[in-house]
Amino acid sequence: MGFMIKMGNRRFILFTLLLLLKCCLAWFVVFEDGPSWMTMLTEIPFLWVVFCMIEWFAKKRKLLYYTIANLLFTLLYFTVLMYFKYYGIIVTYHAISQADKVTEVGNSTYSLMDPYYLLVFIDIIVLLMIPVFMRKNSKKIQMNLKPISRTALSVVFGVSIALCFFSIWPNRASMNENKQAEEMGIINYEIYTIFADSTEDEAWTEMEDIDQPTIDSLKGVQPVANPQYFGADKGKNVIIIQMESFQDFLIGLNVGGVEVTPNLNKLAADNFHYRNFYTMVGQGTTSDAEFVVNTSMYVPKHEPATQNYVKKALPSLPKLLSNAGYNTATFHTNDVSFWNRTELYSAIGWDKYYDKSFFGGEDHVAFGASDEVLFAKSIDELKKMDESDKPFYAQLITMSSHHPYNIPEDKIRIDLPDEFDNTLVGRYIKSQNYSDYALGKFIDDLKSSGLWDDSIVLFYGDHQGLPVYSLDKKEKDLMQELLGHEYAYPDMFNIPLILHAPGVTYPSRIDKTGGQIDILPTVANLMGVSVANQLHFGQDLLNSGDDVLPMRHFLPTGSFITDSDVFVPGISYDDGTNFPLEYPQDPNGKATKQQYENALELLHLSDSYVNQLPDKEEK
Asked: Which of 122, 370, 511, 543 sits most deeply, having the most CB atoms within 10 A of its CB?
């Protein structure tokens, strides 16, 4: 008690209390159980290490250094709050290195902010005003703060270092990053990730030990000697449409007696609709979807695929079809430099790309020209490509329904009940209704031009549109009313896959589980193009059974999807949680430990393979 009195009445305690309040706010938002008394034992020690160093080394302006430390820790907690609200995981320095993207998606970022989050900065504003007040006051404020004894500082420093160590060391083996952060403390976890990554020496599996039979075995794929539909649409065009933030629950959804997506409803009813199909993106979201679909590889662990993977000579669907005599092109109304798509498109091997410089800025929605402009200008280019003596592969990326779904008033084409006013769910439904309208006009153009009957046309969502972590209670209640059950991971990651293949597809609702990584081998099969010599981590959805889909970034490491569950590990497999794909829950459905181990091995093999690929040739 006497020791604490010696330490009391000082900046040391004041700033400890201020940061402890901010830490508790972060814990309330991020961790299900919120803060506890143990939170102090995990969060305070590192703060005290920094404060002891200020007391030791700062001879003057100690208040300034405390304020700077306070600002840096506050920014960290604030970033943790904001990142978790969209991504559902704890931010690390990997993601912070991509902070320049925040300026590009400012409205999306700001929409995640609850106003009370800004309260964490009030004390800093007050502290910065103190010197101004003191200069204006002729009578100086006497703080009478005597130096803390070096003995006391040494004891506090040593105990704090020990507490940091004992928070980190026993929890370093946890598979779940969110659990690690909760057990270690947020600040300790951030420091741990820096040192763990700097000392981690990934032992890649050698190239000669990575082969298709091994991958198929891990996924549970049984080889088919004579695959059904092989070459059924040989020589047809391929048109793949990636729908921004589009989730499967929208298909067939009626709100207020009105269909939300009438055009996609009709497409789903008339063609193959894979209703248990899942997004597999990471930090790069839309650009990651382009990567996964076109390479059949998993996204990297800590970064978007467009950061380092684009340096490699990537096997891809454009290259596969180009070798089969196809012209290839991709269409996106944003600037090609965003998310480093310039390098992505070069690595994937597109013959040509169309971006903002082609589509212009007319009818601006979100980050570029509207979906109506995308489709209207793209159809003209597709007609020109169709006049060539070669078939073509084209991918179109929609963007108007981008988070936070603030489409212009003149684009709103649906009236929703009053309870949807001023909600993210309401804005989402309105924006997707508009995107469906624009898509319907494009489908009409494909049909009138003759391209529809001469092309495989495939539609899928790029990633989730309504992160469960972003929804408030009212919005979660709205989703439960729409779905008939609590909105959870299986709904959030579930995107549609609708496949139109002339002479092959017919009205069919398919329950087979699949993911974006499966699109390449599925298209290759229809085109009669062999993938025997091109390593791929997906499987042909027309000729496969069960699937194991490892997930990254939006869920902790070790998470995966099976035909029955979304599995999320705890500290390990044994204390993990199964989220059923179907409601009510299938009592027999449960992800197995073998599937868990296979999912981790699949990610490791994909990482090993891509990192050992030769660098691409610069043109």
From this structure: 370
Structure pTM? 0.89
* pLDDT reported for residue 585: 61
- Which tokens go with 576? 């993990």
Supply φ then ψ for residue 140, to 5 degrees: -65, 145
CB under 8 Å, gap of 24 or more: what pairs does 191-194 form? 191/46, 191/164, 192/168, 193/92, 193/93, 193/94, 194/93
Give the pLDDT of residue 294. 97
Answer yes or no: is 500 a known binding residue: no
Spot the catalytic one: 92, 286, 330, 557: 286
In the chain the domains, ranked by start, together with CATH numbers, are 2-199 (no CATH), 207-228+243-611 (3.40.720.10)
Q: Which amino acid type is present at position 52?
A: C
- The dihedral over CA atoms of 70, 71, 77, 82, expressed in degrees to the nearest 10, equals 160
363 sits in the region (left: phi over 0; alpha: psi -120 to 50; else beta) called left
pLDDT score of 255:
95
Matching residue, tokens 């609850």: 114
Identify the pLDDT of residue 199. 60
Kindly give the interhelix angle for 11-30 and 62-87, rounded to the nearest 10 degrees. 0
**Is 604 annotated among the ligand-binding residues?**
no
What's the pLDDT at 131? 64
Q: Are 26 and 186 in contact (CB under 8 A)?
A: yes
Cβ atoms of 298 and 602 within 8 Å: the answer is yes
- Is 463 marked as a binding-site residue? yes
Chain-centroid distance, C-alpha 540: 24
SS3 of 368, please?
strand
How many Cβ atoms are within 10 Å of 223's Cβ, its own excluded? 10
CB of 48 closer than 8 Å to CB of 157: yes
Residue 421 assigned to a binding site: no
**Dist CA 481 CA 485 (whole Å):** 7
Angle between helices 262-270 and 424-449 (to 10 degrees): 60
What pLDDT is attached to residue 110? 53
- CA–CA distance, 14 with 23 (Å, rounded to integer): 14
592 is catalytic: no
- Give residue 338's pLDDT: 79
Q: Please report the pLDDT score of residue 538 as a whole number.
A: 95
- 364 annotated ligand-binding residue: no
- Helix residue ranges per DSSP H, 58-149: 62-87, 93-96, 100-104, 106-110, 122-136
CA 169 to chain centre: 29
pLDDT given at position 4: 40
Strand duo 237-243 + 392-397: pairing? parallel
Taking 70 as the pLDDT cut, the residues of the chain under it are 1-9, 96-116, 130-147, 198-201, 584-589, 619
For 491, the token pair is: 């709904």
| 315 vs 295: CA distance, rounded Å | 6
Is residue 601 within 8 Å of 218, Cβ to Cβ?
yes
Tokens of 324: 């089969």
Query: What is the C-alpha to C-alpha distance for residues 212 and 228, in angstroms, rounded to an integer?
Result: 19
